[in-house]
Model the fold of this input.
Amino acid sequence: MRIGYVLGLFPKLSETFILNEIVALKKQGHEVVVFSISNPNEEHIHEEVQRFNILENVHYLLGRKKSRNIVKYGSRIVEKLKWNYTTENIANKLLAIKASKHFSKIANKLDLDILHAHFNGTPTQTAMLMSKTIKTPYTFTAHAADIFVKPDVSMLKLRISNSLATFVPSYYNKKYLRELTKVEEEKIQVVRPCPIISKLQKIKRNPEDYTILTVARLQKKKGIKYGILAVKKLVKQFPKIQYRIVGSGELENILKEMVSLLGLEKNVKLLGSLDDASLMKELSKATLFILPCVRSENNDMDSTPVSLMEAMYLKIPVISTKLAGIPEIVENGKEGLLVEPRNVNQLAEAIKLLLENEDLRRKMGENGKKKIEREFNIQKEIKKMLKIWKEQNSEQFTSYSI
Done:
C-alpha cells in the first residue's frame, strides 16, 4: 500500500510510537509518505529515521522559502509560541486549511491508498480536508492531551464520523471517546503503541545497585516531582540510591531547583534529552524504572506510556500509577507495582520493596517482557491497521460533508 502520514511535527524524539509504525510498514514493503506541518529541529533524532531514509519522503508546510501569509504566521506560532498542534483554535484551523491545500497538491500526484494522522487537532483536521480533496479515505489515532484537554466535542465527533476508523491506544481511551462523542462502537478500534524491539535487543543489561530510571518529557502529567520526593524519603536508608531522569521539557529548571532545595544533588540527576546510544546505556544499568504519572489540572494525562513498555521488554521491574490505560500495561503485583497518583508514601514503599527484593524484581521483569511480546507487538498492531485500510469503501467520499 501507499500510505500518507499526516503529522504535526516530524521527526519528534518523544513520539517513538509513530516512528515504529512507519518503520514496521516500510519493512513489510509498504510505501510511506509523511506530510508534516513542521520540523521540530530537535538536537537528537532516532537512528531509524536515517537508517530507513524516512526524511527522503517527508513534505513540510512551514519553513519553506516561498511560504506566505498564514504560513508565515504559522511559522511564528511554531517557533516563538511553542505551538501545540492538538489545541483547537482559529489559528490552527486556518493552518489546517493551508496545510491541506499544500499537501493535496503533492498527494494528487502520488496515488495514495490511505491517509493516516496522529493526534486529534491540526493533523487530523488536515487529513480530513485532504481526504475530501483527493478522494482518499483517512484514519487517525487519538492519544491523550488531544482528547483529554478541553476537546471540541463537535469537531472530534465529525472527525471520527468521517474517518474510515479511529484508533486509540487503550480500552480506557475507547470507553472515554464513546461516552464523550456517542459515536458507534465499531468506529473506534484499539491499536496499541509499541516499543522498537530491534533497538532494545541490542542492549546488554548490567544493572547497577540502587539505580532508578525515568525516561519522560518533563511535564506535570509525568509526575516526576513525586519520584524526587520519594527518593528524598529513602535516601537515609539507601544512601547510594541514584535517580536518573532522562528527558527535557518546561519543568526542567523547576525540577533542578527542587533537587537543590532538597539537598539531593548527589542522588538525583537530570540528564536532559539523550541520543540513542546514551539512552541505551541508561536502560542497561537501571535497577528499577518508575513513571509516577498524574492527571494534570487541565485533565491531561498519559494513556499508555511507551517508555514503560521499553523497560518491561528489558526485564526492568516498573512502578507506575493507577491511571488511564496504564493498568492495561502493568498488572499490579505481576509485571510491576502500581500506586495511587501523587501518593509519595506509596511510591517510596514500592521502590523500597523492589530495591530490597531481588527475586521479586527478577520475577516481575520476566513477566513484563512476556507481556510486551504477547500484547504490544508491532506486527500484530500493524495487521489491525492494514486490515481496516484494505477494507476501505470509496463510496464514503460522496456521502460526507465538512
